[in-house]
Amino acid sequence: MPRISAVPSKNAGILIRLSYFFARKRYGAVPDPMAVAAHHRPVLATYAVHEMLAEKASRTLPLAVRELAVYRVAVQLGCSWCVDFGEMLQKHEGLDLDRLKQIDSYATSPLFTHQERLALAYADAMTASPVTVTDEQVAELEREFGSKGVIELSYQIGLENMRARVNSALDITDQGFTSGEACRVPAP
Question: What is the pTM of this model?
Protein backbone atom coordinates (compact mmCIF):
# COMPACT_ATOMS: atom_id res chain seq x y z
CA MET A 1 0.00 0.00 0.00
CA PRO A 2 1.37 3.43 -0.92
CA ARG A 3 2.64 5.68 1.86
CA ILE A 4 -0.01 8.20 0.81
CA SER A 5 -3.34 6.60 -0.02
CA ALA A 6 -4.95 6.91 -3.42
CA VAL A 7 -7.87 9.31 -3.76
CA PRO A 8 -10.96 7.13 -4.30
CA SER A 9 -13.44 8.14 -7.00
CA LYS A 10 -16.15 8.80 -4.43
CA ASN A 11 -13.95 11.44 -2.75
CA ALA A 12 -12.72 13.02 -5.98
CA GLY A 13 -14.03 16.10 -7.71
CA ILE A 14 -15.50 15.99 -11.18
CA LEU A 15 -12.20 16.61 -13.00
CA ILE A 16 -10.41 13.85 -11.11
CA ARG A 17 -13.30 11.44 -11.72
CA LEU A 18 -13.19 12.32 -15.40
CA SER A 19 -9.46 11.64 -15.56
CA TYR A 20 -10.04 8.34 -13.73
CA PHE A 21 -12.68 7.42 -16.33
CA PHE A 22 -10.25 7.97 -19.21
CA ALA A 23 -7.46 6.13 -17.39
CA ARG A 24 -9.73 3.12 -16.78
CA LYS A 25 -10.76 3.15 -20.41
CA ARG A 26 -7.15 3.21 -21.62
CA TYR A 27 -5.46 0.99 -19.02
CA GLY A 28 -8.26 -1.02 -17.44
CA ALA A 29 -7.58 0.56 -14.06
CA VAL A 30 -6.57 3.92 -12.64
CA PRO A 31 -2.77 3.83 -12.34
CA ASP A 32 -1.84 4.14 -8.67
CA PRO A 33 0.68 6.97 -9.28
CA MET A 34 -2.16 8.98 -10.79
CA ALA A 35 -4.57 8.20 -7.95
CA VAL A 36 -1.96 9.20 -5.35
CA ALA A 37 -1.06 12.39 -7.24
CA ALA A 38 -4.78 13.28 -7.22
CA HIS A 39 -4.21 14.75 -3.74
CA HIS A 40 -2.57 17.67 -5.55
CA ARG A 41 -4.64 18.54 -8.63
CA PRO A 42 -2.13 20.92 -10.25
CA VAL A 43 0.62 18.29 -9.93
CA LEU A 44 -1.71 15.60 -11.32
CA ALA A 45 -2.59 17.85 -14.28
CA THR A 46 1.09 18.54 -14.91
CA TYR A 47 1.88 14.83 -14.68
CA ALA A 48 -0.91 13.84 -17.10
CA VAL A 49 -0.14 16.51 -19.69
CA HIS A 50 3.59 15.84 -19.47
CA GLU A 51 3.12 12.10 -19.99
CA MET A 52 0.88 12.65 -23.02
CA LEU A 53 3.27 15.16 -24.58
CA ALA A 54 6.33 12.97 -23.94
CA GLU A 55 4.56 10.01 -25.53
CA LYS A 56 3.59 12.02 -28.62
CA ALA A 57 7.05 13.58 -28.98
CA SER A 58 8.97 10.30 -28.81
CA ARG A 59 8.86 8.94 -32.34
CA THR A 60 12.48 9.05 -33.50
CA LEU A 61 13.88 5.89 -31.90
CA PRO A 62 12.76 2.38 -32.75
CA LEU A 63 10.01 1.47 -30.29
CA ALA A 64 11.84 -1.55 -28.88
CA VAL A 65 14.97 0.53 -28.20
CA ARG A 66 13.04 3.18 -26.29
CA GLU A 67 10.86 0.74 -24.34
CA LEU A 68 13.79 -1.49 -23.35
CA ALA A 69 15.82 1.48 -22.12
CA VAL A 70 12.89 2.73 -20.01
CA TYR A 71 12.27 -0.79 -18.69
CA ARG A 72 15.95 -1.13 -17.79
CA VAL A 73 15.76 1.99 -15.62
CA ALA A 74 12.72 0.57 -13.80
CA VAL A 75 14.59 -2.69 -13.16
CA GLN A 76 17.77 -0.90 -12.04
CA LEU A 77 15.86 1.28 -9.59
CA GLY A 78 13.64 -1.55 -8.37
CA CYS A 79 10.33 0.13 -9.20
CA SER A 80 7.93 -2.81 -9.31
CA TRP A 81 5.07 -0.56 -10.46
CA CYS A 82 7.13 0.67 -13.43
CA VAL A 83 8.22 -2.86 -14.31
CA ASP A 84 4.60 -4.09 -14.17
CA PHE A 85 3.24 -1.21 -16.25
CA GLY A 86 6.18 -1.34 -18.68
CA GLU A 87 5.62 -5.03 -19.34
CA MET A 88 1.97 -4.32 -20.12
CA LEU A 89 2.90 -1.54 -22.54
CA GLN A 90 5.46 -3.75 -24.28
CA LYS A 91 2.96 -6.59 -24.53
CA HIS A 92 0.45 -4.30 -26.20
CA GLU A 93 3.09 -3.09 -28.64
CA GLY A 94 3.77 -6.70 -29.63
CA LEU A 95 7.31 -6.66 -28.27
CA ASP A 96 9.03 -9.85 -27.09
CA LEU A 97 8.46 -10.12 -23.32
CA ASP A 98 10.63 -13.24 -22.98
CA ARG A 99 13.71 -11.06 -23.58
CA LEU A 100 12.91 -9.08 -20.45
CA LYS A 101 13.94 -12.08 -18.36
CA GLN A 102 17.44 -11.69 -19.85
CA ILE A 103 17.69 -7.92 -19.37
CA ASP A 104 20.51 -8.23 -16.82
CA SER A 105 22.69 -10.03 -19.39
CA TYR A 106 21.87 -7.72 -22.29
CA ALA A 107 25.56 -7.01 -23.00
CA THR A 108 26.25 -10.60 -24.01
CA SER A 109 22.80 -12.01 -24.83
CA PRO A 110 22.10 -12.68 -28.52
CA LEU A 111 18.48 -11.68 -27.82
CA PHE A 112 19.39 -7.99 -27.98
CA THR A 113 20.45 -6.03 -31.06
CA HIS A 114 23.46 -3.74 -31.21
CA GLN A 115 21.17 -0.69 -31.01
CA GLU A 116 19.36 -2.11 -27.98
CA ARG A 117 22.65 -2.87 -26.22
CA LEU A 118 23.83 0.71 -26.77
CA ALA A 119 20.58 2.12 -25.36
CA LEU A 120 20.57 -0.27 -22.40
CA ALA A 121 24.17 0.58 -21.50
CA TYR A 122 23.26 4.28 -21.74
CA ALA A 123 20.26 3.70 -19.45
CA ASP A 124 22.61 2.07 -16.93
CA ALA A 125 25.09 4.97 -17.17
CA MET A 126 22.38 7.63 -16.80
CA THR A 127 20.77 5.81 -13.87
CA ALA A 128 24.02 5.29 -11.97
CA SER A 129 24.68 7.65 -9.11
CA PRO A 130 26.76 9.58 -9.92
CA VAL A 131 25.98 9.43 -13.64
CA THR A 132 28.70 7.56 -15.58
CA VAL A 133 27.91 8.62 -19.17
CA THR A 134 31.03 9.18 -21.29
CA ASP A 135 31.73 11.35 -24.33
CA GLU A 136 32.50 8.21 -26.32
CA GLN A 137 29.17 6.66 -25.37
CA VAL A 138 27.18 9.70 -26.52
CA ALA A 139 29.23 9.91 -29.74
CA GLU A 140 28.46 6.27 -30.53
CA LEU A 141 24.76 6.79 -29.78
CA GLU A 142 24.75 9.86 -32.01
CA ARG A 143 26.30 7.89 -34.88
CA GLU A 144 23.62 5.23 -34.42
CA PHE A 145 20.51 7.36 -33.74
CA GLY A 146 21.44 10.94 -34.67
CA SER A 147 21.27 13.94 -32.36
CA LYS A 148 17.49 13.83 -32.22
CA GLY A 149 17.56 10.17 -31.20
CA VAL A 150 20.09 10.80 -28.42
CA ILE A 151 17.97 13.64 -27.06
CA GLU A 152 14.84 11.46 -27.13
CA LEU A 153 16.63 8.55 -25.47
CA SER A 154 18.15 10.79 -22.79
CA TYR A 155 14.79 12.39 -22.08
CA GLN A 156 12.93 9.09 -21.82
CA ILE A 157 15.60 7.59 -19.54
CA GLY A 158 15.54 10.71 -17.36
CA LEU A 159 11.74 10.65 -17.24
CA GLU A 160 11.71 7.03 -16.13
CA ASN A 161 14.30 7.83 -13.46
CA MET A 162 11.87 10.45 -12.13
CA ARG A 163 8.85 8.13 -12.29
CA ALA A 164 10.65 5.26 -10.60
CA ARG A 165 12.13 7.41 -7.85
CA VAL A 166 8.80 9.09 -7.06
CA ASN A 167 6.99 5.74 -7.03
CA SER A 168 9.67 4.19 -4.82
CA ALA A 169 9.64 7.12 -2.39
CA LEU A 170 5.85 6.86 -2.06
CA ASP A 171 5.99 3.02 -1.96
CA ILE A 172 3.77 2.65 -5.02
CA THR A 173 4.23 -0.98 -6.01
CA ASP A 174 3.06 -3.23 -8.83
CA GLN A 175 -0.62 -3.05 -9.49
CA GLY A 176 -1.22 -6.24 -11.48
CA PHE A 177 -1.22 -4.83 -14.99
CA THR A 178 0.59 -8.00 -15.96
CA SER A 179 0.81 -11.27 -14.16
CA GLY A 180 2.13 -14.18 -16.11
CA GLU A 181 0.04 -14.64 -19.21
CA ALA A 182 -2.86 -12.64 -17.77
CA CYS A 183 -3.08 -8.95 -18.46
CA ARG A 184 -5.60 -6.63 -16.88
CA VAL A 185 -5.87 -4.57 -20.03
CA PRO A 186 -6.88 -6.35 -23.24
CA ALA A 187 -4.53 -5.72 -26.15
CA PRO A 188 -5.88 -3.12 -28.58
Answer: 0.93
